[in-house]
User: Which sequence fits this backbone?
């Protein structure tokens, strides 16, 4: 009991694990769909945190190079599991919106909060300008890979035509290939735009067996909670008056990456701005270059084909997000005002998405 209390004091997010048994009680007792939805969402937050901690612990045992590969591979496992459950439920628009929302959330919300917190506490902060330039180039390439099928597909045929599906599959193969090249870069260099590692004092001090056990249990928990979440998503959205699009672009990315978002902000508060930028950008790149193309193939196997075709609002938001992030990070310096600018763009986009019809 004492160790549990100490664990909660060290990681307050652990207390949200209480949502796991509450979700089971809610299912057995026939609670409302909204209650089930909120409990499942709360339970995913600490489970995603434990996946991240277990990955960092394994990385500490395997060395920096293999550790970078682990971080690059498992960095967005929670969101991948949630979106797979959504594909099974036929919520393809929610899946595409969550891809867009994850990229925007990392680039605008997380990076913005990190710059505000770090700027208020430490004033002008500096980070690796060269690395920021590499990040910006890869971000532009990743977003271009998402834009091209969306723009050109209408000239090729209907969204359900074999040619459009072939375009999505071809682009997905190229994106995964680019990601694989990024993994090769991560294996050969200490730093990579596709992976990050926390300072030793921030890592979980677990044995390899403990880390593997935690990773397996947390993954199983997220699979369960994702099925519950998706199963009641539509009635819960109706009761809240939210569209599937808003749920995917704002809500799903927040619960799937809340723990990682918090770490990025904490690192900025400790004056580790380079690490904060790496966390935000590497997560965005993983979503664009790995999660999105993987979902194309997974959806095909599951019989609910997902094309990389985004609506004009998502495309505009992606362009705006990448453009302002590249401009803000180009000088290798950040201030609280620049962070406030990123947050302002995120809030404006969020308001527009909230008011859009479903």
Assistant:
């Amino acid at each position: 009991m004492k160790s549990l209390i100490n664990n909660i004091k060290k990681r307050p997010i652990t207390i949200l694990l209480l949502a796991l048994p509450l979700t089971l009680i809610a299912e057995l007792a026939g609670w409302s769909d909204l209650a089930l939805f909120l409990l499942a969402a709360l339970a995913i937050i600490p489970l995603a945190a434990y996946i991240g901690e277990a990955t960092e612990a394994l990385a500490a045992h395997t060395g920096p190079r293999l550790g970078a590969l682990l971080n690059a591979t498992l960095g967005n496992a929670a969101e991948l599991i949630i979106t797979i459950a959504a594909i099974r439920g036929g919520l393809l628009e929610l899946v595409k919106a969550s891809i867009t929302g994850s990229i925007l959330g990392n680039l605008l919300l997380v990076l913005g909060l990190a710059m505000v917190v770090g700027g208020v506490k430490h004033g002008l902060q500096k980070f690796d300008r060269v690395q920021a330039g590499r990040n910006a180039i890869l971000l532009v390439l990743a977003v271009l890979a998402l834009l091209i099928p969306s723009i050109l597909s209408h000239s090729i045929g209907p969204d359900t035509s074999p040619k459009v599906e072939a375009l999505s599959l071809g682009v997905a193969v190229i994106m995964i290939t680019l990601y694989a090249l990024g993994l090769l870069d991560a294996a050969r260099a200490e730093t990579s735009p596709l992976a990050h590692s926390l300072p030793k004092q921030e890592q979980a001090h677990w044995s390899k067996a403990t880390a593997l056990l935690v990773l397996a249990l947390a993954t199983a928990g997220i699979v369960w909670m994702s099925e519950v979440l998706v199963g009641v998503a539509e009635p819960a959205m109706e009761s809240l008056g939210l569209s599937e699009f808003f749920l995917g672009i704002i809500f799903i990315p927040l619960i799937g990456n809340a723990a990682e978002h918090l770490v990025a902000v904490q690192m900025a508060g400790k004056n580790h701005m380079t690490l904060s930028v790496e966390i935000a950008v590497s997560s965005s790149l993983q979503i664009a270059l790995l999660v999105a193309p993987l979902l194309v193939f997974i959806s095909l196997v599951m019989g609910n084909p997902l094309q990389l075709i985004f609506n004009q609002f998502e495309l505009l938001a992606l362009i705006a997000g990448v453009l302002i992030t590249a401009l803000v990070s180009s000088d290798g310096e950040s201030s609280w005002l620049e962070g406030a600018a990123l947050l302002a763009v995120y809030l404006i986009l969020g308001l527009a998405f909230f008011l859009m019809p479903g």
Remarks:
- Residues 2-355 form a domain with the A middle domain of Talin 1 fold (CATH 1.20.1420.30).
- The CA atoms of residues 300 and 306 lie 7 Å apart.
- Residues 1-9 have pLDDT under 50 and may be disordered.
